[in-house]
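#onboarding

Welcome to the new folks! Below is a worked example of what a typical request in this channel looks like: someone posts a single protein sequence, and someone else replies with the predicted structure as tokens. Don't worry about understanding the tokens yet, we'll cover that in week two.

Example request:
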Amino acid sequence: MSWHDQWAEGGFLMQIICLTIGPAFMMADIYFCLSRIVLIYGPENLRITPQISSPATSSPSSSKPPVVAWSNERKSTTTGNNIMIAGLTFQVVITLGFIAATTDFFLRTKRFPAQQSQTHYLIQLRQSTLFKWSLAALALATLLILWRSVFRVAELSGG
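Example response:
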């Protein structure tokens, strides 16, 4: 879109929205991968017990949809900028917590290997080179997403 008209607002907005929310979806995939890795190594070394809840059980029931007011007036971009900074800061904090919890899990797994599932398939999988490379790739992806999020917070803050 910006190729045809570099001053068009639609292409710019599409780009900035994808750049802002894209890493959240990538981190969701990494969280899902970690849940499978925990099953491979065994959940015994987790400090936090996994729980399953649905959005239906945790949200209040309401029959009225939220009211959204739209306006065609041009307003200051500081409110939107502050919302993006707050969201990205929240993402950085959550990612740091995820890194701490994951590091703790792997250190405990190394310290107490006898508690790992000992089926032949899981032992063979944990020892495979491809699996070890995929763990390294997930760790690198997490660090790069963290780096990118910190950079975006600084960039949006005017730094």
